[in-house]
Amino acid sequence: MIYYFLLTLWVGIHQLSPKDAFRSFPHTLVLTAAITITAVLVTLMIPITGDMERYLNQLGNSSETPLLPVLAEVRWETGFLVFQWLIAQITTNSYIYIGVTMSVMWILLLYTLPKMTPFHFLPLLLFGYLSFFEYFNLTTNLIRQGLAVHMLPLLLVFLKDHKYIKSLLLLGAALLFHLSAVVMAGLIVLRKLNLSIKFLMILLAASVFFMLTGVHEMLMMTVVGLIGGPLEETVLRFTSEEFMEKSGGQINRLDFLAFTLFWAAWGIAFYYRLLRSDEFFGWLVKSYLAFASAFALFAFIAYSDRIAMFAWFLTPLLLFYPMTKMTGRTRIYWTAGAMVFAVAMIFFFDVTEDFSHLLP
């Protein structure tokens, strides 16, 4: 954990120092590089388990198989298979494979986050993702969804600027890596309809009510039955007895709901008290509320956290973006408090072991 705490101190000095020299472009660049190196090293040092073992086996098989037979094995998520096959033609080394995959995810963040805030706030937002309790699960285990969900911040930027063609292309790319990215399509509809935050608050409240009363399962099974296609197939698969047994029957998780609602309340509070005139934060809160509603409505399926992940992946932005709009002592106090909160979540969710592989 020593590297993590040193980075925390460094980011704190960078963000809270009254001297502009600490936030200069060269200093910001060096700090960003340090956070990046740490994130990559943590990913590489975490022991290989779970889905990653299966991906590495597939990697070895792909090195000896032409592309077309590999693609013939599946109907969906072909983008990931092509990505994996291309790496396999060069090497089947597990460290290189994991490093390249994680680097693609991190580069998406490095490219996208400066489009949301001035460059000197980039280390603060990256620190938020470094401290996100599910982050290294996405980079070492759930890598198909990890690649897809890392496209979400860029989709928010495109849609904020009403770049619908780019948004559709990005959505298509995300779907080629993980079908759960279909929930991101709702953001395009949301942006076109320009639904209000109040409406989405009501939608979330209704979704939570349906979840708590058990109505959500009947409602959503009817909806996906009408839609049909891969969406219906996926929902049926994740409600099958096989998947319920694999997930330990952990559905309709109230702890997931509580965590999701906490961040909904956080975003709403900052929006109405401080950032009503900030277009991006308003759009961020709307997107979060929409994803939170989707999770509540589909909480009856196995591994419902895969749906919640699209909301949760926005929590580092909900936590730290408001600080980028503050000034003076207010910004100092809130930034320090938010960083302490981020560190506390590392311990609360017991993911300190991720960092302990670097140094005790």
Automatic annotation (TrEMBL):
Per the UniProt record, one Pfam family is: EpsG
UniProt keyword annotation of Transmembrane helix present: yes
Lineage, top-rank taxon, reads Bacteria
InterPro entries xrefs: EpsG-like
Q: Where are the transmembrane segments?
A: 28-46, 94-112, 119-136, 168-189, 195-215, 254-274, 294-320, 332-349
Q: Which UniProt keywords apply?
A: Membrane, Transmembrane, Transmembrane helix
- State the name under which the record lists this protein: EpsG family protein
